[in-house]
Amino acid sequence: MSLTVADLTRGAMTQFQEKLRQQHEESMHRELEALLATANEAEAEISRKDFDGFKRLFHRFLQVKGPAVDWARINRPPEDSIQPYEKIKAKGLPDNIAASLNKLAVVKLNGGLGTSMGCKGPKSLISVRNENTFLDLTVQQIEHLNKSFNADVPLVLMNSFNTDEETKKILQKYKHHRVKIHTFNQSRYPRINKESLLPIAKSMGVNGENVEAWYPPGHGDIYASFSNSGLLEKLIAEGKEYIFVSNIDNLGATVDLFILHHLMSQPPDKRCEFIMEVTDKTRADVKGGTLIQYEDHLRLLEIAQVPKAHVDEFKSVTKFKIFNTNNLWISLPAIKRLQEKNSMDLEIIVNPKTLDGGLNVIQLETAVGAAIKSFNNAMGVNVPRSRFLPVKTSSDLLLVMSNLYSMDAGSLTMSKKREFPTTPHIKLGSSFTKVQDFLTRFESIPDMLELDHLTVSGDVTFGKNVSLKGTVIIIANHGDRIDIPAGAMLENKIVSGNLRILDH
């Protein structure tokens, strides 16, 4: 057999690439050791565990070539792998649902800051309803559950180095509530220079010039950091079998007794180890991750993994009809098994960032739902849209503060006075982005029970007891201001130009 010049060149290239990869890894390991040398003993011990996870991720990042999925091998999930919620609800509940609740812990992802809404500190401490923060509402929900069923469902917060200190200070106020609260910290990974592929950190500190050098590596880190913290073992020892995981800013993510019962009523040999709550896509959700069948497993497909040529197809509401709400029910013994075997295979999300000084860096991240393919008998449950009520912007905030929702024991439900179950589409302009600005522009939150669509742009304020119905568009041109007077009722109106209401 004779080798052509092309074969030899290809072989040499592969060898060269392999050598380059080794050099990158060796340099990275050296830099990480140098960083650890700047930490005190206790900090170095925690950071070494973090760095072990980072090294594995970096190793895989260097190996990966091309898109994460072969588009031609993607299939729709089999019919029975995504169950309609109605089917699960139809089974009803047993008399002893409290026994199932006692095997559950609730985990809230609490690593994010409120910066996108113009707030400092943890996002979970923003007031969203009647002076209650996301965290207040969560505690109220679980306390109500524990009291109603005489159960012991603990709350677990996964904090990041950005949110841990402030969250822990606030937890003092829940001492006398009937909820045990545990916290653990997500890993802290180094941002890496896009060109050199080396950490930009000069030391293990997170202040001063180092403030932008670190990041929490996405919620896929929950498995390793939960295990490293010792909390996974502790909860299993206490008889907990499942965790219900969700984003703390999703106000629709409450403990659902029907899904819990479904999990607990499976025969031991067919135990479902992972449920992902999905819901029907609308045009607003086209970027959300979806479930596919790939190589005989259910798999989460995120937009970042889609080859460029197929992005429009991915966004199509006809081909991929559902998306991941990030409400997940996961077996604790299964997490333990997969962590011990080190066989949790999460796709890497490469997140490029440009820092304030113009430096291009990359963050290597993973998503919690991506682990679905590693668990046995995993399935999706197509839940009502009401279980997905995230507050990411001030437009979302207006929705949940309004009379569209009523609140009971920390849970928000759509008002019975609303004639149709869909939420109105709200688009507030940049003057409303920061929560503080948003609050000064409303003397009281308008009546929105009959609203379909609201667009507000420019310098606009709302007086007390305003009522909005149908489609309302309010646009103040640059330099103009519009004051909507107290008691005004706008129905299918466009307001533009300049409208000042002056006191006299």
What does this structure look like?
The chain has 504 residues and is an alpha/beta fold. Helices cover 28% and strands 25% of the residues. It contains 13 helices and 25 strands. The strands form 8 sheets. Strands 1-17-11-14-10-2-5-6 form an 8-stranded mixed sheet, sandwiched between helices. It has a 4-stranded parallel sheet with strand order 20-21-23-25, covered by helices on one side. Helix 13 links the parallel strand 20 and strand 21. The protein is globular. The model has no long low-confidence stretch (mean pLDDT 90).
- Please state the oligomeric state of the protein chains shown: single chain
Total DSSP E strands: 25
Structural class: alpha/beta
- β-strand amount: 25-35%
Helical run tally: 13
Q: Kindly report how far apart the N and C termini lie.
A: 98 Å
Sheet with most strands? 8 strands, mixed
- Low-pLDDT stretches are none
Q: Into which percent range does the helicity of residues fall?
A: 25-40%
Strand order of the largest sheet: 1-17-11-14-10-2-5-6
Over all CA atoms, what is the radius of gyration? 25 Å
Average pLDDT taken over every residue: 90
The shape, in one word, is globular
